[in-house]
Amino acid sequence: MRTHLAALVVVSVALGGCGDANQPTQPSSGNSAISEAIASVRLPARRVTMMDACDPATFNAAIGRGTCVQRNGGVSFAKFIAQLTKHQTAGAWHFAPPNTTAQEGQTLLAVNRGGEVHTFTGVQRFGGGIVPLLNQLSGNPEVAPECTRLEDDDFVPPGGTYREEVGSAATQLFQCCIHPWMRTVIHTH
Q1: DSSP SS3 for 153
Q2: How far apart, in whole angstroms, are the C-alpha atoms of residue 54 and residue 14?
Q3: Which residues on neighbouring strands pair with residue 51, listed in sequence order?
Q4: Which of 71, 124, 160, 178 is the Cys-Cys partner for 156 at CB 3.0 to 4.6 Å?
């Protein structure tokens, strides 16, 4: 981004020095070129990482083949359920960072670095997801309405990415509709 801004300063200085200093300045095509260049500078995507530590052998045995992939070892399904029962969360299942800032129009890039499928769903209020047992154990009995309207492309497989543009609201909430304690808050500035 600094490179883009530095280039704009150089262009601005170079174009500002054009013309006769004794003549009043008039809007020129050079000025519109600067405006277009400034408008075309896009902020880099704000990255949110989706994490989990599922153990493929025990998760696949409990839920079904393909539930958990790409990991050796990890948290067993029994330990995962025990953590949820005790804490209403399983710490290795989270979005990082849990809070961040972004600008309106900036892209959020959610990257799944875990072994399970996740969603990165914008919600008005945090709530439960699409798995009743996980809602119960995590203390989220009221399902977030947005989680009831998921489409196929809302599910992010291990290693996959999901892009979302930041809206104009001052605070925006995102959660996983499978593991509803996985959340992040985006503060728009």
Answers
A1: helix
A2: 57
A3: 94
A4: 160
